[in-house]
Amino acid sequence: MAATAAAALTPATPLRFKPYSTLRFLSFYSKNPISPRLFPPLPRRPVSFHSTIPRKRCFCSVISAALQSGEMKKTEFPEKKVGEMGNTVGEFRKKLKIADIKGGPDEGLNRVGQTVVVMGWVRTLRVQSSVTFLEVNDGSSLSNMQCVMNSDAEGYDQVESGLIATSASIWVQGTLVASQGSKQKVELKVEKVVVVGKSDPSYPIQKKRVSREFLRTKAHLRPRTNTFGAVARVRNALAYATHKFFQENGFVWISSPIITASDCEGAGEQFCVTTLIPSSREAADSPVDAIPNTKNGLIDWSQDFFGKPAFLTVSGQLNAETYATALSDVYTFGPTFRAENSNTSRHLAEFWMIEPELAFADLDDDMACATAYLQYVVRHVLDNCKEDMEFFNTWIEKGVIDRLNDVAEKDFVQLTYTDAIGLLLKAKKKFEFPVLLVYFLFKPT
Amino acid sequence: MAATAAAALTPATPLRFKPYSTLRFLSFYSKNPISPRLFPPLPRRPVSFHSTIPRKRCFCSVISAALQSGEMKKTEFPEKKVGEMGNTVGEFRKKLKIADIKGGPDEGLNRVGQTVVVMGWVRTLRVQSSVTFLEVNDGSSLSNMQCVMNSDAEGYDQVESGLIATSASIWVQGTLVASQGSKQKVELKVEKVVVVGKSDPSYPIQKKRVSREFLRTKAHLRPRTNTFGAVARVRNALAYATHKFFQENGFVWISSPIITASDCEGAGEQFCVTTLIPSSREAADSPVDAIPNTKNGLIDWSQDFFGKPAFLTVSGQLNAETYATALSDVYTFGPTFRAENSNTSRHLAEFWMIEPELAFADLDDDMACATAYLQYVVRHVLDNCKEDMEFFNTWIEKGVIDRLNDVAEKDFVQLTYTDAIGLLLKAKKKFEFPVLLVYFLFKPT
């Protein structure tokens, strides 16, 4: 578990994501005082055993070299009692985030007068004659913390020198005060600001709106946008609500195998998983005839990792069923794969799927479970992601909150296939495929 | 979401896991009255669009055939209002499970006198002169519900005819009474029993202990054993506690990509994911020269699914870092893959990994988070899986509960590398690799 430093990534420099690379990057660029508690010197990573010492005889040469050099004798391991060594690992405390401050029923007014620290990324900076406004976002919520700064605040020189710019990561200490603005109830009167990672004017996501196609080319930075941040928070809420619903109802989560030799109900084309083709570092130039083959030119699966063809799962149902007939009610929630080459929003090569399996249940129980689940997760998101849902309602899909409220509150109806077709025929809507055609194709026999 | 019927699988018959296959199997074998509420007739599944109608022109032929046959004109869609169609989907109710009955502080005594229904699988059957004891397990807990049956109970003839045997799935209604036995506080005085799925004496997991190697050959039945049931419940508790810990501490769950073109910190060999090799149905006989190649005999990756080589992820860290530098604290929890061909208990080809990424954190915060997480999940399992942990403590690893209590309650200490080696040198234990050798190989420089 590596602590990721909150570095502001300068896009012009190529990024290498290796252990501590963000930190290295940071310490190279930062010329500003950094709180010593924040970033103590990092220990070097021990070298990988596998990469440097592939064979047993190496052990001996390392040891004998150490012995000959006398280094081993020099090493002293002082006689300490256990109690004399090291310190107790510190207590883990939940960080105070902007959502914690502004998310309460009084939107932070209960904390007015408190000294708090906010750590996050600068969204905008407005320098006015007497005062500077910094909008800081820490990803815990869509809305920022407005930080108000006078020229006597410690670290104000970093505003003047341009170090504090959009997307710089900063540490701000100040006092919460009631805000004069209409957009928020509280704001932070800054006492001290520290630039943790600087940014510069070439940062590609400035205040103006950018297209999702453009953001696709900046995949490492798009989580900092309103849309992707909101999607991440809502997706997280949906996933957690899924676990909560099933756990509260006595289901057991099953991690069904991802690599499998089974197909399942012909759900779709499968990806092959193999080591017969060289790994990433050499794959680009791999000759076909390097793939092991039998005398008659067939692929020699006996030389593959599992000794036979293996595939990515298209469904965990097969495995979940064996557990449902032992544990009563189970669910899977994991990634699933389809190698269907249709580029639509409804066909994904990789997606996370929930597959509940109920024992001693009939189709009525099944429908009751499915609708209860849907209503539970929709209600959870409407209650816990209000700000994000309002953002979607305004900018992405008008009316989505009303529609989801309907799903969460109205009764679901079960009706016959013929009645469903009848409803569609009466609907004043043009469908891509004629309803009667669909009726004949899918009619239960 | 298909409801899985609780069929007792007769092992001599080959199993085909297709939709409703367990149910079909069941209805074929069962000659006993089955509660009509339990298993109403199932609707036929609509045929798969893809498998039967691959091309657009088929639409027309289906429609025109229907028109010519006059079938289309015959179809009537009665004019109903929405309110007249169908019924409201029923309420989803959490099933009363054996764990709910016996899991409370008074182990079920508070429910004495209640009429309850238990659905599960027969573990053992003891027919005595005046009374029959049935041990029924529903997978919600390790311990069974002891069901006591007189010959006047409805359905008792199924005991006499041998239908109720080990692993048969049954539905039992009765009254909870205080138990005379020392092993449980309550038992069920049976009023009615229904065999949902029968079993027979060839069922391979009878009362005597069987080896895990043997169970490996009965993978579809081993979830019904004590060991695999306990493992599933503890694994489920660990997974849920993992989500709870991070969610309660403001982390956002990120589902990092499983299929990826990135390597990550050289963590291990990668599996290649490809569609250049035919899918499961034809893979066994695939000729090497059917793999697309370029003029100079290299694999033509442009014809692969993603147009370039793709692999299974060895770590979600790269992606989690981009989200941590936007949302502050995130974690991944998903499957990870290593194609290292070493068959040890520490090298798995597929495993679920948790990767927290903390922004604005240093190594001390990192250690505090790691130890708090460990203590949280260990405490959660000790509190919520008592019976299963006692089973492990008795049968799998003596002392495991004491050891885990230590982990959950004692302070973690951080110490220097040299102090750690000093401790190991003093330990009266023979290690596979000499401690001094390890010291020189991994010594921080």
Brief rundown of the structure:
Two copies of one chain form a homodimer. Chain A is α+β, with helices and mostly antiparallel strands. Chain A is 32% helix and 18% strand.
Question: What does it look like?
Answer:
Chains A, B: Belongs to the class-II aminoacyl-tRNA synthetase family. Chains A, B: Its EC number is 6.1.1.22. Chains A, B: It is an enzyme of class 6 (ligase). With 445 residues, chain A is of the alpha+beta class. Among the domains of chain A are: 57 residues, no CATH class; 100 residues, Nucleic acid-binding proteins (OB fold (Dihydrolipoamide Acetyltransferase, E2P)), CATH 2.40.50.140; 94 residues, no CATH class. Chain A contains 15 helices and 13 strands. In chain A, strands 2-3-4-6-5 form a five-stranded mixed β-barrel. In chain A, a hairpin with a 7-residue loop joins strand 5 and strand 6. In chain A, helix 11 crosses helix 13. Chain A is extended. Chain A starts with 20 loop residues before the first helix and ends with a helix. The N terminus of chain A is likely disordered. Chains A and B meet through helix 3, strand 1, strand 2, helix 8 and strand 7 of A and helix 2, helix 3, strand 1, strand 2 and helix 8 of B.
